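Appendix C reproduces, verbatim, an entry submitted by the partner laboratory led by Prof. M.T., so that reviewers can inspect both the input and the predicted structure.
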Amino acid sequence: MRDLPLPGGGWFRLAEGEAVLAEAPPRLTAPGAPRLATAAATPSPRRPAGLGALHLALGGVALAIPAALAEHIIPMPPLRPVPDAAPGVLGLAEDEGAAVLVLETGFAAGMPAAAGAEPPILLLVLREGGRRFALPAARIEAGPAIAATAGFQAWLGTPEARAALAHAPAALDPPPLQPVPQRHLVLFRAAGMELALPAESVVAVLPATQPLPTPRPGMAGLAAHRGAVLPVLDAGLVLGGRAALAEGPAPLIRLALWPEVLVAVERIGGVRALPAADVTPLPQRDGLVAAYARLGELPLPVLAPHRLGAL
């Protein structure tokens, strides 16, 4: 058995006609030299890996900043000067609609003169002690925490840093999002008009169906759904327009009424969720139109189910 090199690196060993990956290359020994017993290889301890710092560079200045302080990185924005600012303050920038204080990167590293040697293209926004501030950079890389990371944390407690950060605005968390009350409407077309019904009044929507004829006046026929035989009304005739069943089968809407009824329409437009504030009810309670919904360019009439499905 001998070890052979693999193309691209590594070694393998032929054992009983099969290639087996070798853990290490063969050790070369001089002819006749005694073979030394090798102890079992013990894996060397690995250093803990992680992204504990952001490494910032600008014009010869290098800073290692704890990643826990970072909020995000944005392109370098325009700055507005701060009147009567402390040393180290470059100005104010806008970030996500809020003000953020921008400090000189060299000032934070104790090298204020070196900061102007390279134009910044990035801005690292930080949060510390309830305040938001930022540092310009030409390059920002994520990496492990090093000894200089603790040095930046210590610099934040110096009198110079505290004087500059006194101009930093408070870090205000955005208010929690409040759920917006919604109304769900079933859109349909009947009598040539775009209309809607409250979704809670609709039990089901049936595909195009031709009802069985019935001699009862005012009724378009009978249709079966989920084991029940229900009367069918034609919404076009109820609305004083063209019958939805004039040219054959039409979609049916099963209304949650008692007694239950199916209503034939020209087309089903699906279910649409709207803010409740966009649905304005009418003062009258017994009209066919119960409300108007703001949808698109024109208001959409929302019909009263008990009036549309009245037998």
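The first strand starts at residue 3 and ends at 5. Additional entries are available on request from the coordinating office.
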